[in-house]
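We emphasize that the prediction below concerns an isolated chain of 156 residues; any contacts that depend on oligomerization or on bound cofactors are therefore not represented. The input was used exactly as deposited, without trimming of termini.
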Amino acid sequence: MVTLVVTLLNRREIRFLLAGAYNTVFGYLAFLLVYWTLAAMASAELCVAISYLPSLVNAYLVQKYFVFHPAGWLSGIVRPRTPPANTKPSVGTAAEFVRFSIVNTSVLLINLAFLPLAISYGGMRPPMAQALFLVLAVTVSYFAHRTFSFRSQTRE
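Result of the prediction step, given as a token string:
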């Protein structure tokens, strides 16, 4: 059983899915905390916007250190990825966080545009439309984070 868990954790795609599940729960709990605190004076939409920032920071840290650059306790379990010879490891820079934020915010905005279109023009019920978008969003965001947010920086 331990061997299976280690084998699975050595797959970045599996770590991405686990991180996504955790980040979803974290984001929902952050929303609930903000909503229960501010419900009497703020709209649900404002509560979503306020809870987005801590959720984004949490998601960045989990994606960086658990999914794309495992370190610390995980380094004994997950085999480190060997970067190509002409690259240096990506570091936790402000630019990296901005790239991560661009990807996540883009997915959010596309979701906000896709959902009403799928419902109005595609005749889909909201749960089905959101489930379809979720499959696309997970796939696109994995590749975007791998190649853009947490890319290795080419040496000059």
